[in-house]
Amino acid sequence: MNFILRRLGFYALAAWVSITLNFFLPRMMPGDPGDAVMARMQGRVQPETIDAMRKAYGLSDDPLWQQYFDYLGNLMRGEFGIAISAFPTPVTDIIRTSFFWTLLLGLTATIVAFLIGNLLGIIGAWRRGGLVDSVMPPLLIFVGSFPYFWLALLALFFMGFEWGWFPLRHAYSSNISPSWSLEFVGSVAYHLVLPAASLVVVAIGGWVLGMRNTMISTLSEDYVMMAEAKGLPQRRVMFNYAARNALLPNLTAFGMQLGFILGGALLTEVVFSYPGLGYQLLGAVRNLDYPLMQGIFLIITFSVLGANLVMDLLYVRLDPRVRGA
Amino acid sequence: MSSTISTVESAGPTGDELVQQEHSRAGRIFRSGLLGLILANRKATIGASILLIFILVGAFAPAIAPYDPDEFVARPHQAPSLDHWFGTTGSGEDVFSQTVWGTRISLGTGLIVGVAVTVIGALVGMTAGYFRGRIDDVLSLVTNVFLIIPSLPLLVVLAAFLPAGFWTIVLVLTVTSWAYGARVLRSQTLSLREKDYVSSAVVSGESSFRIIFAEILPNMLSIVVAGMFGAVTYAIGAQAGLEFLGLGNPSSTSWGTNLYWAQNNAGLLTGAWWTFVPAGLCIAFVAFSMSMINYAIDEVTNPRLRSQRDTNTLLRTSNRKLGKSRATPVLRPTSGD
Amino acid sequence: MTTHSYEQLARDFREGHIDRRELMKRATALGMSATALGWILIHGHVPATLAAQEGTPAATVSDRLMTVSSEQASTWTRNFNPLLPEGSSNRWPTIDGIYERLFIYTQINAEIVPWLATEWSFNEDNTVLTFKTRENVLWSDGTPFTANDVAYTFNIFMENEAIPGNGGAVIAPFLESIEATDDTTVVFTFLQPYTIGLYDIGGQMIVPQHIFSEAGDLVTFTNENPVATGPFTEVVRFEPQIWELHRNPNYWQEGKPHFQGLHIPAYPTNDAVNLATINGENDWAANFIPDIEQTYVAQDPEHFHYWFPATGADVHLYLNTTVAPFDNVDVRKAISMAINRDQIVEIAMYGYTHPADTTGLSDAFETIKDEEAANAGWATYDVDAANEMLDAAGLAMDGDVRVMEDGTPLEFELNVVSGWSDWVQACEIMSQNLSDIGMRVTVQPYEQATWQTNVQNGDFTMSIGWSSQGATVFNFYRGVMSSTTWREIGESAGENWHRFQLEETDTLLDQFAATSDPAEQQAIAVELQRLYAEHAPAIPLFPGPQWGQYNTMRFEGFPNEENPYALLSTYSDEALLVLNTVTAKE
To answer: Taking the model in full, what pTM does it have?
Structure first.
């Protein structure tokens, strides 16, 4: 219990640092959201109009520290404020619509990469020097070396635009509206293929190598030898004895990974016009939309903290030693 | 660094567990010479050669590049030819020259960030691990906080808010990526500190500074170096990503800005694939070379991995294949350790 | 059965008011064919052809939806408040599409098209402006539109200075009162003669009093279901990545618009828009497409067209005139002559525009340009002459860079927004050009808000930027060389970033604003042009092209060079004319 409390204390501190950074960083930059609108309109709006717009935004003139405490207070009450770039839509509305898509894309890509990667790693280690083992690692390392947005761009251009195999944008077809129909779910899945694949392709190599290496270590453990000696079926030895144990360190990494899902696919979302959080964040930064920026940052930080906390709890369950610490 | 890469580039396992294995053995091997490793291991040879080529290209860019990278030398979007090996950009610059010059900023950023991240990580991590107690508490806290702040969004925010330029990118990437190395090195130091040779050094009254850098550091050099290569890869990729988003300085020449311009000049839509491909391939090759070196370090560190080729050789000489029903045997090195 | 009931049914289904089974039941009751039903199930709307066959179509109105891209966003937020400036956070076409103005000024023809007002006139001393509003105009909910709505609209700005509008907040400080004297007459009383305020009044969207007076805080009013006078008012579908706007059932122009509605997908970036446009998905878009002949037109020369008239405000190079040696007019002119505008136009702008002349005015003012002012010579590329002028100005060469008398070398940063690639490219070309006259200029990109703040506060030495442009030359010259827009360094200036003022300008502008006689205004406009040509307060580079692409696969009647009835740009005031003219193809 003590351990958990200490971790919670640490997370609270980390959250505070993150929130504070995110409050002060953007405000250190010259300019305000009015300037951003002015720049975006490139002179199509008269300066007097922008002055009125600034008043409408209700930007505070209070000293920065006071704004900071107001901001903390508002957060405590769950108030994220109004997104200036989508004035006067509440920040929570914007995050709500984007959150799901980012989560879907990130989760799908991470899980698929994890499953395929580990499977290949297991097979590679099991058949050392076999086809999978000799071809896969260097190939995957090479593919994984490409910048993921570069692969995404090429995939979009060729498979989307030139050959028309996949949609060019969005999370579902604009002919249908969200519902739980088979058609809609199918459309979502179809739109997910390219963005997710471009993430999976570069991520997979790491899992393969990691799994292969731990698996090789595990294979020489006595209990694996024992299982083999007993004449258990190969498949069983491979998965139930060796892989099961080799998987543990990778699971930890997987947990860490889950936390980074929300912030991770920014460029992919941009390339595929996927309506997720990443692009919203970029837009918020460009438009100096402090509240939206803070809101998104907060959600991402909390998801990282949440994933870490879950891992901690699991850790306590799996390793009794830490409980006493 | 790897933890932050994994947010973007790879979802691979990055747990400390993997690197922690058999560290001291690797340390000794390392002391026998990086060059030895590179020559002895085929993967390392490949990796190091590619890297060396790029470093040379960057160093001698003015001599290699036929044109000034910003000079308008021909019609826009000319396909590769004898005059322009990689064709021309949408505004008529020489893509080959731009690629060559781009090596400087891209690789330069990568190497500087790699070194900076490693130095900061080592200083913080080793200090925390060696002194323990209060110092460790404070440093670990700082490290962990930096680890948990999502780096990619922070990267975007920082890059947007500082004036665009080379050092901004270096600073931003360093700030967001030193923490992982610090954590790994701290746990390494913690365990190495318990070794006899460290205890005896402490007893014989050597200074903490000397113990850390002369006794402990050499024994985890493999991890430090691996971490550095990881950071270099990450930095090059992240820089390219930021520049592609327009958060860098588009008027400088790097692989990232080359991609930015290729995109903004509709390189793909006009069929000018040559504006896209070179920069992407260069980034991939550099990252590949780093991975190969790291792969090699892994093999050296973990003898079970290293034995693969020996196994193959054994199999070949005995002229038989391992039955499909047999798990791979692991050959333990007989000499030395 | 009518098309309308089919469409209503399709809409109910699309919006989830009825489920699949209910749709089939009602469709059978209406006697709809299986084909039409299938189409609705898949597409969510009635197909144009089937509707024409099976229903009794209302005149020539097509059921087709036009796919348009005007603004870029990753997700849409529902806001149709016409009191916010265009492009801030209200959806296109809230301004000039859903809502309408009193009259439309067409930049392309320099003509005024009466709209919600039919006629207007100033009194003798130009202090009272009287509008006659159009009769028989209905709001989309059926309520009649009257002069009271107009008076109400402008009084909003008199009472609350935090409401920006599109001209309302600009004109309010010049007005004493706005009053509707009867159902079709509105009287604007000015504090002093300010005739060019006519265009600010004309720019403001008119809102329905019976809705807005009940709406509460008009700044945060999102107006989700707009009641308006424009051709398109019915928001039938609104999702984060797509929304649809259908025609106004009570539109005052008989038979218009000629098609059912607009289909507006969210494209987050230029690239996403262009990809869709090139793929033939967008019927109408207004975007910068690089190398458009090759990337767009060549894909389908029969249907894919563009038109980029150079009528946008001149893009300028601004030199901070409070910084030596930019306070010297000869230095400014020399710099201007060292810039290879042809190269900039060809390389950075893909030849979409042409070099600027020495009036600083774009093609929108072609007819009123003064020959003498336009040919002052300092916008002509001539490096030798530029070097001579700098020698004469006492800026001697020291190695490959010129130095000022105190020995400071001419080394400057040229500011630009990092994301605006065409301007970045233009800056790089200028940086190279200027090295030929011994200036070391480094291009320094900033994020847009930072760049904006820096130029406004005068915290820069060189920067590229746009200029102001209105219906008359007044706005431009006021912005570039008058004391009205001039501010101290460190104080925020919305225009006149380079800090330049002339007393003569102020006098001329005052005269200009005090008269409503076009001939008199033209005479003053010539004076202003000559003043600009003499002093070179800023360095004009090229007139801004007005972007616009269209696809005639499904729709026709877009404006182009042969038929320039309006600008093709979705974001222009004239977009409403396009919406009302375009027809669906058979």
So the answer is: 0.85
